[in-house]
Design goal:
The structure is a single chain. Helix content is 30%, strand content 25%. It has ten helices and 15 strands. The strands form three sheets. Strands 3, 4, 5, 6, 7, 14 and 15 form a seven-stranded mixed sheet that branches. Helix 5 links the parallel strand 9 and strand 10. It is globular, with a radius of gyration of 20 Å.
Length: 331
Amino acid sequence: MMKALGYEKAHPLSAFALERIDVPEPRPRATDLLVEIRAVGINPGEAAIRRTRSAEPGGRIILGWEFSGVVVQAGAAVTGFAAGDRVMGTGDMTRDGAWAERLAVDHRVVVKIPDRLSFVDAASLPIGGLTAWEALFRDQDRLPPAVDRVLVVGSAGGVGSMATQLLKTRTPAFVIGTASRDASREWSTAMGADLVVDHSREVVGQLRDAGIDRVDLVLSTAGTTANLGWIAEVLRPFGHVCAIDLSGPLDTDPLAGKSLSLHAELVFSRLADGASQQAMLAELARETTEGRLRPIATTVLDGLTVPSMRRAHELVEAGRTIGKIVVASGS
């Protein structure tokens, strides 16, 4: 048996029902690693699942799909990993997550990390890094043709922070971030944004005042449904929108007049092609240890405990997170 954080019924933050429970230790599949968890990154999607998804009768849900830790055991079909390896990775939303002492996870969405990369910093990278990479570089790891200006909506968050850095280290694009507070604007600039505008005010006018008459691609990390009108206005004809938060009804009329393309991004949609994500994760780890990318852990909470996780969810649901919240296991 092992300890984990789980719940039975979907619930709001005001009725936080996460509990520290005893559960059977996971049994690794042939392609799995059994990993002892050292730190987990916290994502808005996990809070959304907690609010909306209940377990089957008699069951429980264990969240958490961004982690770092140490390999305890490698499955019979696994190559390239051994017990004692320091690793980071994501996971599979159809299986138990990493809010537990140990996790069974497909080795193809895990990479080794060097000793000079801390567990906390490693846990800040996978979801934001993979989401940004897949959203931006869909054409053989390149931006779409004729993309010179990219606007990142919510550039101070986890995905926005990684997107800004990847754009500045891998492309010559002029990067515009959006942020509404002094602290988030400063962070976005530190991530490499060439210009930061305030998304709580009229964006089109701010861009015009800065001499920007159009952008080629918008990566929207939050508020896409409400912002689609002005997003379409700032894009050039045949420009591109990528959104990571699409849900519910969406009025696409603003896109039609400019023949704009829209695509969604969910990092778990490529699980069947885990090898490609493993290569991305390895590159993220390499570029971070070489100093080209910067880890984005800004708030570190101690211990995989109910109080720590409640505080993490309070911060996430407040919608004012800069960088990434990471919970260290304490082990």
